[in-house]
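hey
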């Protein structure tokens, strides 16, 4: 007698909920704080002013990221809940039409009409709302919005990312802050991008280059603004 051997697979998509918030938070923490530090340093500010600006940027940025992520993801969660409520109502009042709709979805994906109908009937008998949520609305349990998770993850990772340029400011002589901060930040962005690509199962090199490019561009622009402002003042 042959046996069916099952194995458990873990895919990168299972981590997309917290991974997106983590990468966004850490990247924003590094880029925004380093850009702030570089801009202030380019304006010829003293060491204390640069450090104060960096710390203020860390605190304000972490709180802003948490609030922004919570509001944004809450909106997504509310939309999902509204769609599920509407679908539940339609299943109660229009069961045959909903069954036909589900069968049509499976048929459009390549199943024969008879098999699509059979699959729709069996899934409807087991859990009609779950079937419609997944195959009609695209709502999958482990990918659904989690506002609190996104807010906490973003705030923590923002603070961690912001520590990178702040450490450069604390440990570097005032005359070298501008250069060292840019170098350290670039390396930090490369590591962050590569790590995000690796955890997400994507290309490490491509992810690293993408993050570094936009981070360096942001620092260059703020450095130029700070330099011009410092000359004018």
């Amino acid at each position: 007698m042959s046996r069916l051997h099952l194995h458990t697979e873990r895919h990168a998509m299972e981590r997309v909920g917290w991974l997106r918030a983590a990468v966004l938070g850490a990247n924003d923490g590094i880029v925004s704080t380093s850009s702030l530090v570089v801009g202030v340093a380019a304006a010829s500010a003293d060491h204390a002013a640069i450090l104060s600006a960096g710390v203020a940027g860390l605190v304000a940025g972490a709180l802003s990221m948490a609030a922004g992520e919570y509001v944004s993801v809450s909106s997504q969660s509310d939309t999902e809940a509204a769609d599920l409520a509407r679908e539940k109502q339609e299943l109660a009042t229009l069961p045959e039409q909903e069954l036909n709709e589900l069968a049509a979805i499976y048929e459009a994906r390549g199943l024969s009409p008879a098999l699509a109908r059979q699959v729709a009937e069996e899934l409807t008998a087991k859990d009609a709302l779950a079937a419609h949520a997944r195959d009609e609305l695209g709502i999958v349990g482990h990918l659904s919005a989690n506002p609190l998770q996104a807010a906490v993850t973003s705030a923590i990772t923002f603070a961690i990312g912001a520590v990178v340029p702040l450490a450069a400011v604390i440990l570097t002589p005032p005359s070298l802050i501008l250069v060292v901060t840019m170098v350290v930040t670039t390396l930090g962005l490369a590591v962050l991008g590569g790590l995000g690509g690796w955890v997400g199962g994507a290309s490490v090199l491509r992810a690293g280059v993408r993050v570094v490019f936009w981070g360096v561009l942001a620092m260059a622009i703020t450095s130029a603004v700070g330099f011009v402002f410092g000359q004018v003042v």
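The two ends are 86 Å apart (CA to CA). DSSP finds seven helices and no strands in the chain.
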